């Protein structure tokens, strides 16, 4: 209550929304790091397999990868698809945190007035 009028305490809603965006960013980052580990392991396994087999009568895994990247128009072989996806996925939590911050600031300003 302020001057006999009921005041809304919206600032806490902004904090909750900001926290959800922050949690989303942390989850995305953890997923990205786990994905990078598995991709590195798969690449090392692919290269070790290619070295262990001296003669290939079929295309090597690296040749198949390059062909698939070319067909997908991803400009391989030195492309990081996971990084491209990760960068785009960071936009959503950033917007959620910005909205939460704006709501919290608006609620605080309204509460003080």
Explained architecture:
This protein has 113 residues and is mostly helical. Helices cover 74% and strands 0% of the residues. The protein is built from four helices and no strands. The chain has helices spanning 11-52, 61-71, 81-89, 91-112. The longest helix is centred in the N-terminal third of the chain and has 42 residues, at 11-52. The radius of gyration is 24 Å and the shape is rod-shaped.
Share in helix? over 70%
The coarse silhouette is rod-shaped
- SSE class: mainly alpha
Order of helices and strands: HHHH
Uncertain segments are none
Strand content: under 5%
User: How many distinct beta strands?
Assistant: 0
Question: Mean pLDDT, nearest integer?
Answer: 85
Radius of gyration, in angstroms, nearest whole number: 24 Å
Query: What characterizes the major β-sheet?
Result: none
Quaternary organisation = single chain
> How far apart are the termini?
12 Å
By DSSP (H or I, 4+ residues per run), the number of helices equals 4
What key attributes describe this structure?
74% helix, 4 helices, 113 residues
Briefly summarize what is shown:
With 113 residues, this protein is mainly alpha-helical. The protein has 4 helices and no strands. The protein starts with 10 loop residues before the first helix and ends with a helix.
Topology:
Elements: H1 11-52, H2 61-71, H3 81-89, H4 91-112
């Amino acid at each position: 209550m302020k001057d006999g009028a009921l005041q809304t305490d919206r600032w806490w809603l902004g904090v909750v929304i900001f926290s959800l965006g922050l949690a989303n960013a942390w989850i995305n980052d953890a997923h990205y790091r786990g994905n990078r580990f598995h991709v590195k392991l798969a690449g090392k396994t692919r290269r070790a397999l290619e070295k262990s087999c001296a003669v290939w009568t079929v295309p090597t895994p690296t040749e198949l990868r390059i062909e698939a990247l070319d067909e997908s128009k991803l400009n391989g072989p030195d492309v990081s698809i996971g990084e491209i996806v990760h960068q785009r996925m960071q936009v959503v939590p950033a917007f959620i945190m910005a909205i939460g911050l704006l709501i919290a600031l608006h609620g605080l300003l309204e509460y003080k007035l």
